[in-house]
UniProtKB/TrEMBL annotation, chain B:
Residues covered by region (Disordered): 97-117
Origin species: Marinobacter vinifirmus
Family statement drawn from the similarity comment of this UniProt entry: Belongs to the CPA3 antiporters (TC 2.A.63) subunit C family.
Main localisation: membrane
Keywords, in A-Z order: Cell membrane, Membrane, Transmembrane, Transmembrane helix
Alphabetized InterPro entries for the sequence: CPA3_antiporter_subunitC, NUOK/Mnh_C1-like
Protein name: Na+/H+ antiporter subunit C
Length: 505, 117
């Protein structure tokens, strides 16, 4: 039992509750407390990262119920990695929102913190039904955040997003029911023990449940047939919200890694590597689709939203291959792409604020203020996202390309990633040169100078790509250890033997 | 009992999916509600159907599995909140677009595109 594990859930919960009751407090006080909560969360997740790095599993059983009978939180390297990635991104997006995006709705900070709570539960939980609850917590907060900002542009994308996710929740429940009806458990460690023993007709039932679960996770991760909700929803969200949403697709990817490597991994008997042969081609088609979308995007935000889909495809292809090297490479790339995409959303918003009525559309407009600063940020972000040296996207893609063993899969993966990367570069060059270089005479009347907070937050978000490069050695070592830990499922199963706190002491 | 139960789940889910595919927000919301009813009953059945049994091990020869009941309770609460939200969102869509089409006001868009041409 380790009580630290509850901190990433309790901190945003308490901070969020506090915000709920002080909607009418002065905005400076609300901002200070909200930001303090996020800073505390970053500190906690860094502590958890150092704890998890010794390679052991830590479990926290709610109510001291011996797993598999109660709900457990489980901390391992993967969970700690996701926590740090989320909290750092959230901190910078939160700082950006202080520049004015949090005005207009008294509950912005509440929703923001509750969304973080949902994300953290999803990363820490060791129970399939609890994962469903975590998804619902983060989704209902995200519904509110998506609609944040006033105006009518967000209504229709918001409606699509909500309805699709409600259908996804129904599918999640059906698949959970199918799996429970055969195995009699929803604890992930216990499932990893029970699923390999399932045979015959029951195996078909679990297989159907497992495949439906993959559909749900693919909807969250925006894999091709289920990705069309994403560009409109993300492009219409307010900038800090869109930046935070960069992590939402990664929750789907995290769930795929967690469930499909642990429960349906190599040792799962009849159900070994369930769905992975479907995932590989789908991931590549998703990548191709994302590139096409990026080429056709007519504003910077939807260009970035399509970049989210490109990175989902790039991430899931190596994950579907399932070797330790490719898993490690995918985790490295996930860190890099999530932070860059979030940074690009913030930069797009700053650009839009400086161009008057042209906004972030990719059209010629009068020369904007702060052109040098913004164009440098955009260029670094674009170079990193397209995967050119010297920034982190290059190293992520290089690791992914090097992790594949020679064969037809290698040909497909190399071909798609390299051609896709080149065409992404074309899309970014087109957008950048039109927005920053081809200016027309005249001046933008409404442009106000950039605020310090937003400029610093966007700059820091983009600068993280340089940080990743500088720390590539330690990060790569960590992701390699993580991949090894994920593939060694027997250690995870041992959390069933976690000693409970005795009633005597 | 099993047959009737299965038919009810099937009918609810099929009607739910049919209504979900409609183009107006009201049928979509009703479809979501029916779908969640079907799912809740399905989840309930995953603990096996039993009448007159206690949810405590060892108190009788067979027992009623209490876990799916807890899961259904959670799912009902969440589903209820989500339905309330989607109803409000549909009303907002109607107010913003003067139309309850799920894609907003189609007629207006077409008119403005024609005007451009």
């Amino acid at each position: 039992m380790n009580h630290w594990l509850t901190a990433p859930v309790l901190i945003p919960l308490l901070g969020g509750i506090l915000q709920t009751f002080m909607g009418y407090a002065p905005i400076a006080l609300r901002r200070t407390l909200a930001l303090a909560t996020t800073v505390l969360l970053v500190a906690t997740s860094l502590v958890l990262l150092t704890m998890a790095d010794d390679g052991s599993y830590r479990a926290y059983a709610f109510g001291n119920w011996q797993p598999p009978f109660g709900i457990v939180l489980v901390l391992d390297r993967l969970a700690a990695f996701m926590l740090v990635m989320t909290s750092v991104l959230a901190l910078l997006a939160h700082i950006f929102s202080l520049g004015g995006a949090d005005e207009g709705n008294r509950q912005f900070h509440t929703l923001f913190l509750f969304q973080l709570m949902g994300l953290n539960i999803a990363f820490l939980t060791g129970d399939l039904f609890n994962l469903f609850v975590a998804f619902e917590v983060l989704l209902i907060a995200s519904y509110g955040l998506l609609m944040h900002g006033g105006g009518t542009v967000r209504t229709v994308p918001g409606l699509h997003y909500v309805v699709l996710n409600l259908v996804g929740s129904s599918l999640f429940l059906i698949s959970v029911g199918m799996i429970y009806s055969v195995t009699g458990t929803l604890n992930m460690a216990d499932l990893a023990v029970k699923v390999p023993q399932v045979t015959g007709e029951n195996a078909l039932l679990v297989k159907a449940g497992g495949m439906m679960l993959l559909v749900v996770f693919a909807l969250k991760a925006a894999v091709l047939p289920l990705c069309f909700w994403l560009p409109k929803a993300y492009a219409s969200a307010t900038a800090p919200v869109a930046a935070l949403f960069a992590i939402m697709t990664k929750v789907g990817i995290y769930a795929i890694i967690r469930v499909y490597f642990l429960v349906f991994g190599d040792d799962a008997g009849e159900l070994a590597n369930l769905g992975m042969d479907w995932l590989f081609p789908l991931a590549l088609i998703t990548l191709a689709m994302g590139v096409m979308g990026a080429l056709g995007a007519d504003n910077l935000k939807s260009l970035t939203a399509w970049q989210v889909i490109i990175s989902v495809g790039t991430l899931l292809a190596p994950i579907a291959l399932g070797s330790a090297e490719s898993l490690s490479a995918a985790l490295f790339y996930m860190l890099s792409t999530t932070w860059i995409v979030a940074g690009l959303f913030l930069v797009a918003d700053l650009v839009a604020s400086q161009r008057g009525s042209a906004g972030d559309r990719i059209i010629t407009a009068p020369m904007m203020r702060h052109r040098t600063f913004l164009s440098v940020l955009f260029m670094i972000g674009a170079v990193a996202a397209a995967g050119l040296p010297p920034f982190s996207g290059f190293f992520g893609k290089l690791l992914i390309l090097m992790s594949v063993e020679p064969g037809p899969q290698m040909a497909w993966l190399w071909g798609t990633i390299l051609v896709g990367g080149f065409l992404t570069l074309v899309a970014y060059s087109r957008a950048g040169s039109i927005v920053f270089w081809r200016t027309v005479d005249g001046h933008v009347e409404t442009a106000r100078p950039l605020k310090g907070t937003t400029a610093v937050a966007a700059g820091a978000m983009i600068a993280l790509t340089v940080v990743i490069v500088a720390m590539a050695g330690p990060i790569n070592r960590y992701t390699e250890d993580t991949a090894a830990q994920i593939l060694d499922t027997s250690a995870y199963i041992d959390i069933l033997q976690t000693p409970m706190v005795g009633e005597d002491d | 009992m099993e047959l009737v139960f299965a038919l009810v789940i099937g009918a609810l889910t099929a009607s739910g999916v049919y209504l979900l595919l409609r183009a107006r927000t009201f049928p979509v919301v009703v479809g979501l509600t029916l779908l969640s009813y079907g799912v809740n009953l399905f989840l309930f059945a995953s603990g096996r159907l039993a009448t007159g049994q206690q949810p405590i091990l060892g108190s009788s020869a067979s027992y009623a599995d209490p876990l799916p009941q807890a899961l259904v309770l959670t799912a009902i609460v969440i589903g209820f909140a989500m339905t309330a939200f989607v109803v409000v969102l549909s009303l907002r869509n109607l107010a913003d677009n003067q139309d309850d089409h799920v894609d907003g006001n189609r007629k207006q868009d077409e008119d403005s595109e024609e005007a451009k041409q």
